[in-house]
Amino acid sequence: MARVAGINLPPQKRIDIALGYIYGIGRSNAKVILAKTGIDPKIKSKDLTETQIATLNTYIENNLKVEGDLRRDTQQNIKRLAEINSYRGYRHRRNLPVHGQRTRTNARIRRGARKTVGSAKAATKPAATKES
User: Fold this and answer.
1) Model pTM greater than 0.85?
2) Confidence category of residue 120, pLDDT binned at 50, 70, 90
């Protein structure tokens, strides 16, 4: 099993697809990495040799920011925006869309499930019985 940048790559997938399992590497970035390292994109990740794995590891380590470092930087950027009270930081704090999307409708991912307010029919009182 190929282990690149601390991630076990799925053995049955082609290497250009399998590199996408690393946080910070997408399809286009994977193609660039494979072109620079001279590895055939059609090869399965289980068929990689130790030298190919080593070249992938060194290239990614030296040229890209992936996994933990990238996640940490992203969180620090969000924290910085919130600390300086920018509009984007405010939207992150309130868990609202950050990039100008509408919120009157949609925005369900950020805002969560709908909460119905005031449209439910009021419960009726039981009829009073006459006792004589």
Assistant:
1) no
2) low
